[in-house]
Design brief:
- The protein contains 6 helices and 2 strands.
- By secondary structure, the chain is mainly alpha-helical.
- It has 2 domains: 32 residues, no CATH class; 98 residues, no CATH class.
- Strands 1-2 form a two-stranded antiparallel sheet.
- A hairpin with a 5-residue loop joins strand 1 and strand 2.
- It is globular and about 55 Å long.
- The termini are far apart.
Length: 146
């Protein structure tokens, strides 16, 4: 298999050997999309999300991982359902009919925040902050979340 990609100036360049070998080992279809570095959530956003999850778990007296699953389901899923027709269709077909506790458990393996853009992650974090403020928990940020 000889795979190429089109660069910004229109020329075709070969994929690196390792990428082609990895794609050849996959059983199903491999989808490739352009991702700009500015589209990927920042490390600061990621760190803040996990710090807030620990704060929420302490406040709620819940086990490790609970807050992240809860926030993914209650806040992240609606953002992705709004922004991605493919995610919405899959979620609505497979997860929407499930009981709430089963959906919450499924968030352990369903990617929600991992693929968010900086803009989506900013919205997610701001929504998490507002949601928990209504529950009496002030989540503070001294970092730039964008």
């Amino acid at each position: 298999m000889h795979l190429t990609f089109r660069t910004k100036d229109g020329t075709l360049e070969p994929f690196c050997k390792e990428a082609v070998e990895w794609m050849n080992r996959q059983d199903g279809l491999v989808f490739i999309r352009e991702v700009k570095k500015t589209d990927i959530r920042s490390n600061d956003q990621n760190s803040l999300m996990w710090a807030w999850s620990r704060d929420i778990e302490r406040h709620q007296h819940e086990d490790a991982g609970w807050a992240h699953r809860y926030n993914k389901l209650r806040i992240g899923v609606p953002i992705l359902r709004r922004d991605s027709e493919a995610f919405r269709a899959l979620y609505d077909r497979l997860l929407k009919p499930m009981a709430y506790e089963d959906k919450l458990e499924a968030m352990e393996i369903i990617e929600v925040t991992r693929g968010m853009t900086v803009k989506q992650m900013t919205e997610f974090l701001e929504s998490v902050q507002r949601h928990w403020a209504k529950q009496g928990l002030v989540l503070e940020s001294t970092e730039d979340t964008t």
